[in-house]
Amino acid sequence: MSSSLFDLTNKTAIITGGARGLGFAMSKALAAHGAKIALFDILSPVSDLSALRAEGVDVDYWKVDVTSKEDLEKAVDEVKAKWGTVDIVVCAAGVARDSPFLETSIETFEFQHKINTLGSYLTAQVAASRMDSTRGGSIIFIATLTSHQAAPAQRISAYAASKGAIRSLVPHLAMELAPLNIRVNSISPGYMMTDMVKGLEKKSVEEGKGSLVETFGKEGMLGRMGREEEVGGPVVFLASGAGGLDDIALQDQYRTSRTGNNMVFTLSWGILATGQIATLFSKDLLISPSTRSVSDVTHRIHAVASSSSVERAQEFIDAITVGNEDEKTRSRTEDVEKKRGEIKAYGSYDELVNDEEVQAIYVATPHSFHYEHALLALRAKKHVLCEKPFTINACQSKHLMSVAKANGVFLMEAMWTRFFPLVRELERMLHEEKVLGRIIDVHADFGLEFPGIEDSHRLLNPMLGGGALLDLGIYALTWALLAAHRAPENLDEDGNPVRPRVTASMLKARTGVDAHTTIALDYDKSEIAALVTTNMRVRSLPDSTARISGEKGYITIGWAPFRPESFTLHLLAPPATTGASGHQYVGTEYLPPKKIEFEIPGHGMFWEADEVARCVRDGKGESSVMGWEETIMVMEIMDEARRQGNFKYPEELEAHTPQITVNMLVVQELAHHPLISHFLRYTSTTMGRDKIYRIIQYFARFYAYYLLRQGAPKDTIVPWNSLKNNLALGRKLMRVGKNVEHVRAAAQAVEGLGKGGGDVVGKALQVGRQVGYAGYLTFDIMQYLHGAGFIQHPNIKRIADNAYKCWLTGLAFNIIHGLYKLRQISTQRAALTLSTTAAEEEKTDVKKLDRESNAASYQLLQDLLDVTIPGSGLGLLPLDDGVVGVAGVVSSILGAKTHSEGKPSVYTTTKEETWVMGVRYE
Ligand SMILES: NC(=O)C1=CN([C@@H]2O[C@H](COP(=O)(O)OP(=O)(O)OC[C@H]3O[C@@H](n4cnc5c(N)ncnc54)[C@H](OP(=O)(O)O)[C@@H]3O)[C@@H](O)[C@H]2O)C=CC1
Ligand SMILES: O=C1OC[C@@H](O)[C@H](O)[C@H]1O
């Protein structure tokens, strides 16, 4: 029995040069680990294949000249037709000629290069183009030790060069084929006693050069020649992908080369929710992929979030990192526990999706939240694996897909069952091998009892998307679609499945959700009928997950519908006869049933996770195994079944549904563009709106002046003047009460001054500034009351002048403070060493001072621009409204920018002061 690490069961291997020598030896090794063997050779096999077959090996021979692409294509296609897949290719066909360099003819050179280099190249090319990227593949070139080093007993430069060329192919093909999930390696056997060497030996002895065997043996590190079967280990190792290491050198007789492109890809996960299935999924993520013979991808849980609290998230982390008690995986216990401290805990989903180190989010909340939470993650540009049912209805699913597409991220429904090796093998047997011939009838069922659950439970609660169909029926539907929908007879000319007619009925539970649902799917094109039943009251029978009947018999799938461990093939006994409809009927007697079992080394959720990792690694938006088309199909059938069963979820759940129009989508996505959403968030604050109004106010002031200068009619100018006045008045109203805040800040600054210590000059300037602003805003209130008509102040001009004077005072203190600050910074900067060898902290200090200096200059500029407003209002500066308007617009834009970036005021010297600083008045 083969170890699962090197298990090649269900894999097909092609071995060129497989009829004899190393090729044949390697074939036997691959067969011993379960592979089906296709021997390609120009020569007939040395040994009778029936002997191998008698040992249970599935083996066949194809006469192939590896220098003929046509031969290769024909043979590889035949292998695929026979066994369904091509998974492993060993390019071992080769020739060697002993020929001194100075005497080697073009023909001898070309002969070896044609078979060894071109032959391997073509074999790899033809085979790779026929490999299934979802299964992955392995190409192994057989090079030679003599392509790394000289061979003192031989003259084989042309041969070594042809094999050296093969080795050079490895990194390039590995890179190009990595997206197809195909690994590429080479093995360089040392001196092996094969037929080829025997030929050389004969020649050497005949020519009186002595025995090569002896010389070769001395050159080998073991002091002897290698035996053919000794190359079996490396080839099985590379074919199985069990290594997962980069750059492996097998030191003795072989060298293997693996490239950076074969490096393991690690996906960093964020787990959103801490319920039952999130626990199982996370535990599976922590199982070493090598336990399921996966070596190209691995997983890391970076963070977990709970919607309730950070403590809940931590509890979850503690629980998933308790070592597994399972005998088989006991060895990982210690590793898993080590991971506990590496996983972050969050008390909100927002924090999780905004963690930059998280690449993919696993959404495991109840059904009703899938749409909202997947959207949250997609908009944060995370790849998403979202639990089944994907959403409440098909429309929501389509919207998620369009958002994923717009954000360039991967999205998949976590229909984990689709990724079990059992399911992949069943699909292959049904649709490629066609073990049942044409499929005729499918019955899929999933029932489960939930005794004593409350109405609030997610299965019964309509607000949580309850009901049998969305929770359990979805699995039965998946089985039906897998067998019927994807049957080749059901595909249209473009290869797309033709939709079925849907007839459904429902029996309701006390909360109004469906307790039983029956769906009939009728496929007119392929004449397949499928019946899907589900309920949440009684467990379905052990063998009734699905029964798939075809012309040649039927298959039953065992329990559980979400995690099956076996299926049984019941084939009708021969002979075959042809029925009236053209279908093959083969009697009523059955052969003994064949039960095919599959081991699940864990809960089985890691296979879907591996798919996500591969798709993310390869830059794919959707999976080819569980693609968007399938999710939409399932959702649409469930929508239709609910429509016919008269079952709608509460409006709030269904109403999340956006009507997908291109315009809606553009608007939605625009609104979520980081720049735009930042702007919308900014302008939703009072301060943000005030800054925008201020920009418009000063622009209106400038523009009214401009129109006047242009001699525009009064009617054109009036609206701009009134815009300016209305905004000025409105903004004054918004500031009513602010004077009190400045009085308080002034009092605090005085107190700070009284305590002494610290930056006394800074504190004193602060007092002046706060007093100035407090006075200014007090006069400002009076101006508002007058402007709005609450009072008629006889001396409003004087009030306005006083306001300006106070404002100017505040600004003057600001400016002095700005200059003072700049001076302080330049003194501190001069004190720091600026040599290139300066310590890191020092360099950091310099950068900090540079930043502070920029901020102070920026603020000073705004203050100087603002001086134009009260300065001209008081007649101190001879400036017209054009200049003042422009100065006001510029200072407002600068202020808005600083504020929207969330930078604190440069004048702030106490915490308390922050809330009244950075505000630009008038
Ligand atoms: N149970 C199973 O065997 C399987 C379940 N699934 C699917 O996974 C999803 C979750 O199922 P399951 O893990 O069993 O459910 P649970 O009820 O065990 O867990 C759901 C989790 O979602 C989070 N949550 C967030 N908001 C709410 C809310 N308002 N009400 C309840 N929970 C909330 C909670 O975690 P927190 O507050 O900490 O974030 C909670 O622990 C379902 O859609 C189900 O179909 C799929 C395969 C198998
Ligand atoms: O996906 C599921 O499969 C197993 C059931 O127990 C569970 O309710 C369901 O969500």
From TrEMBL:
<protein>
    <recommendedName>
        <fullName>D-xylose 1-dehydrogenase (NADP(+), D-xylono-1,5-lactone-forming)</fullName>
        <ecNumber>1.1.1.179</ecNumber>
    </recommendedName>
</protein>
<dbReference type="Pfam" id="PF05648">
    <property type="entry name" value="PEX11"/>
</dbReference>
<dbReference type="InterPro" id="IPR057326">
    <property type="entry name" value="KR_dom"/>
</dbReference>
<dbReference type="InterPro" id="IPR036291">
    <property type="entry name" value="NAD(P)-bd_dom_sf"/>
</dbReference>
<keyword id="KW-0576">Peroxisome</keyword>
<feature type="domain" description="Ketoreductase">
    <location>
        <begin position="11"/>
        <end position="165"/>
    </location>
</feature>
<keyword id="KW-0521">NADP</keyword>
<dbReference type="Pfam" id="PF13561">
    <property type="entry name" value="adh_short_C2"/>
</dbReference>
<dbReference type="InterPro" id="IPR002347">
    <property type="entry name" value="SDR_fam"/>
</dbReference>
<dbReference type="Pfam" id="PF01408">
    <property type="entry name" value="GFO_IDH_MocA"/>
</dbReference>
<keyword id="KW-0472">Membrane</keyword>
<keyword id="KW-0560">Oxidoreductase</keyword>
<dbReference type="GO" id="GO:0047837">
    <property type="term" value="F:D-xylose 1-dehydrogenase (NADP+) activity"/>
</dbReference>
<dbReference type="InterPro" id="IPR055170">
    <property type="entry name" value="GFO_IDH_MocA-like_dom"/>
</dbReference>
<dbReference type="InterPro" id="IPR008733">
    <property type="entry name" value="PEX11"/>
</dbReference>
<dbReference type="GO" id="GO:0000166">
    <property type="term" value="F:nucleotide binding"/>
</dbReference>
<dbReference type="Pfam" id="PF22725">
    <property type="entry name" value="GFO_IDH_MocA_C3"/>
</dbReference>
<dbReference type="InterPro" id="IPR050984">
    <property type="entry name" value="Gfo/Idh/MocA_domain"/>
</dbReference>
<dbReference type="GO" id="GO:0005778">
    <property type="term" value="C:peroxisomal membrane"/>
</dbReference>
<dbReference type="InterPro" id="IPR000683">
    <property type="entry name" value="Gfo/Idh/MocA-like_OxRdtase_N"/>
</dbReference>
<comment type="similarity">
    <text>Belongs to the Gfo/Idh/MocA family.</text>
</comment>
<dbReference type="GO" id="GO:0016559">
    <property type="term" value="P:peroxisome fission"/>
</dbReference>
